[in-house]
From TrEMBL:
Keywords: Lyase. Residues 159-271 form the Mandelate racemase/muconate lactonizing enzyme C-terminal domain. One of its GO terms (molecular function) is lyase activity. This is Mandelate racemase/muconate lactonizing enzyme family protein. Pfam families: MR_MLE_C (PF13378), MR_MLE_N (PF02746). SUPFAM superfamilies: Enolase C-terminal domain-like, Enolase N-terminal domain-like. PANTHER family: D-GALACTONATE DEHYDRATASE (PTHR48080:SF2), D-GALACTONATE DEHYDRATASE-RELATED (PTHR48080). InterPro entries: DgoD-like, Enolase-like_C_sf, Enolase-like_N, Enolase_C-like, Mandelate_racemase_C, Mandelate_racemase_N_dom.
């Protein structure tokens, strides 16, 4: 087995060791998995792994081989996690997700040790601020309860409700927004085959038309379908929406079959986005090299961390494909994505998915809200450039779990 342990040396001031790793689950609109690493240099790093269960136990497991490691070796540490746990699913899935959060925490610590913001550790700075698109929902059309989708009554999905929600978000200063377009009505007359009737497609067209009429063409507009449709229904829907010049139509079909994805993408002039539920660069390379996607949407807190997302962005850049990271995180994961957005030339726009969490900005200690006029300024402070307010973290810690 390859040995990714720490065998290299540095000067004494950079010979730092991880002394502890801890996790905390914050109950926002999703379960946010926060990760803290402590070092013998007195520096603490904070990271975030993608939402959902299992991550704290995996992070706890990694302590048996990560204590004593140097957080400056953030890429090697991800490689070591994958290698050490490769025999039990470590090359994909939740292990890679946990490694993503640990890597971000290491980068935060490394930046503080070296006195540099994370984007500088990633190699470049292409922009001073990162544009945000707001994930938007009509009325009470979407709620999350323990990680599951809870739908509202049918009136919440009217074209007028979509248009009103869009107007509110634009009024907040966002120049890009996204709605969910997959709905309970899609399950009629069959719950599982993924086919859309003509009537269902027409209703979707009416919702898109209402939003576009409300906000005009000066605001970027996208719609998410959450992998729900068959190839033929995906094609028909994409064709029907071509007239509205969408920023993209996202995740039309299940993610496993690459040939099917390529078929859908190449069949329409509506831009197609996907990529959030793939792991490591290996699962996205073919998608990019075969032009199975117009905009690639990896989730840095899922895919293997910021350095791994940089590799994906490099491959996308070779194909002249923009990168718009998926992001449903707390301010911690969001700011990690902001540094990534600063560091890659083909970055486009970053997701924000916490509009309904009115205490989102209370989780950090900055004086001002992170999002200003639809953008986030790239921090110049060392590491992530923000710190957690641990009193607020404790107040919102998931019931039955412990705060830091």
């Amino acid at each position: 087995m390859r040995d990714y342990g720490n065998h290299a040396t540095r000067t004494a001031d950079r010979e730092v060791e991880i002394t502890d790793i801890d996790t905390c689950v914050v109950e926002g609109n999703f379960e946010w998995n926060l990760i803290k690493i402590e070092t013998d240099a007195g520096v603490t790093g904070i990271g975030e792994a993608y939402r959902g269960g299992g991550i704290p136990r995996i992070v706890e497991y990694t302590k048996r081989f990560l204590l004593g490691e140097n957080p400056l070796d953030h890429e090697r540490i991800v490689q070591r996690i994958v290698q050490e746990m490769s025999g039990h699913g470590g090359t994909t899935g939740k292990v890679v997700t946990a490694a993503s959060g640990i890597e971000i925490a290491c980068l935060d610590a490394a930046g503080k040790i070296l006195g540099l913001p994370i984007y500088e550790l990633l190699g470049s700075k292409y922009r001073d601020e990162v544009r945000i698109y707001c994930d938007t929902h009509a009325g009470e059309a979407y709620q999350v309860e323990d990680g599951a989708t809870a739908y509202a009554d049918e009136s919440a999905y009217s074209p007028d409700a979509y248009a009103a929600a869009a107007a509110d978000v634009v009024e907040m200063g966002f120049s890009a927004l996204k709605f969910d377009l997959d709905l309970p009505e899609d399950n009629d007359p069959d719950r599982t085959n993924g086919r859309l009737t003509n009537d269902r497609i027409e209703r979707k067209r009416e919702r898109v038309a209402a939003v576009r009429e409300e906000i005009g063409y000066g605001v970027d507009l996208a719609f998410d379908c959450h992998w729900d449709y068959s190839v033929e229904s995906a094609k028909r829907l994409a064709h029907e929406l071509e007239a509205f010049d969408l920023m993209w139509l996202e995740d039309l079909i299940p993610p496993e079959n690459m040939d099917a994805q390529i078929e859908v993408t190449k069949d329409t002039r509506t831009p197609i986005a996907t990529g959030e539920n793939r792991f490591r660069v290996h699962e996205l390379s073919e998608l990019l090299y075969e032009y199975g996607v117009d905009i690639v949407t990896p989730d840095p807190t899922t895919v293997g961390g910021l350095a791994e997302t940089m590799r994906i962005a490099d491959r996308a850049q070779e194909q002249y494909i923009p990168v718009s990271p998926h992001n449903v995180c707390s301010p911690i994961g969001t700011m990690a994505c902001v540094h990534l957005g600063a560091a890659i030339p083909n970055f486009d726009v970053l997701e924000y998915h916490a509009l309904e969490v009115d205490w989102w900005d209370e989780l950090h200690t900055n004086d001002e809200p992170l999002i200003q006029d639809g953008s986030i300024e790239v921090p110049e402070a060392p590491g992530l450039g923000i710190e957690l307010d641990e009193d607020v973290v404790a107040e919102h810690t998931l019931e039955g779990t412990d705060p830091f």
